[in-house]
């Protein structure tokens, strides 16, 4: 008995049919392209022949000349005659040589095109099938997956695990110990880890903000109580209380404004007006402002060359003011604060703020941009800082695709260098 031939799967037959249609469509377009090309080549060669003969035999070319081919018996021995507008023959040449050359070239060209079409007819379908093979494999794999019978209890267990997940236990993740759900489990645990980190950051932020606001509120309440008891008749207590309340109110206002700035930044509601600016001009304005505002320190401005930066000029000024204000807080009166601007080591634009202040330890440098972080050496000092200034400056520089280079030594001072990408020309 003869063995029955195995039938090809329906999907394979369908892919073959699609490949054949694609190949036939391509061959049709290629055939039309060849015809169009042949016509254009013929017209171009005829034009070259006509213009070339006129220039060679008559000395010039004119559309008014009368041109005709004439032959008696053999077309390939035709004569090409050109006459002027009065009917006088300008020249007459045998065109057979040109016609034979044209015929030979045409035969070779058409033969090559036909050969290409024949080869495409035999091998084109297979080539298209090979190109479609990855898609066919994807479709087959999808078909296999769709035919796999999953147990619905697996999805119910996953749903229960997600529903019973608590924020405090989020770091433990979801563990179903099921190979079929391992990919989903990994993706969910990655998402939970990011949510947990964001939740922890938000919780810490709210806790720190509450702590920072609690101190000035307590001070204000204390002075209000003191005013209520003794300040009505004691002028000294009245003046001291008013001054303290004003200072604490200003401190609270500054803190709230900085909190709002960071909140808008975290929610992407802080708009930046990005344009090309001269960084030298921006820093020169900040330098002149510092001279007027702070008379307790000496300021010096250095620039090596004019550099351009793409960014928001107001935001860049704010970042520089924060660094200058930070330098002034921890630098003794009469000491120098240096502002620099120019090209960084790799040619990128940068500005720098350098002071002769108390400096920072390596740990302080690591946490310098953390929100509400203040070094132990200045935590109890009367600098009036909120611990948010450098965080704001960091946010601004990050939005400009820049970075900080910090060099600091305790007792010697600190140098902040802010490097930005080169402005696109």
The count of strands amounts to 10
> Nearest-angstrom radius of gyration?
42 Å
| Count of alpha and pi helical runs | 9
The assigned structural class equals alpha+beta
What overall geometry do the principal axes of the alpha carbons give?
Answer: elongated
Low-pLDDT parts are 1-8
Beta-strand share of residues: 5-15%
Secondary structure elements and pairings:
Layout (H helix, E strand, L loop, with lengths): L9 H49 L7 E5 L8 E5 L5 E6 L1 H52 L4 H12 L18 H50 L3 H32 L8 E4 H15 L4 E6 L4 E4 L1 H17 L6 E8 L5 E6 L7 H5 L22 H11 L3 E7 L3 E7 L6
Parallel strand pairs: 5-7
Antiparallel strand pairs: 1-2, 2-3, 4-6, 7-8, 8-10, 9-10
Brief overview, please?
With 425 residues, this protein is an alpha+beta fold. It has helices spanning 10-58, 96-147, 152-163, 182-231, 235-266, 279-293, 313-329, 362-366, 389-399, and strands at 66-70, 79-83, 89-94, 275-278, 298-303, 308-311, 336-343, 349-354, 403-409, 413-419. It has a five-stranded mixed sheet with strand order 5-7-8-10-9, covered by helices on one side. It has a three-stranded antiparallel sheet with strand order 1-2-3, covered by helices on one side. A two-stranded antiparallel ribbon has the order 4-6.
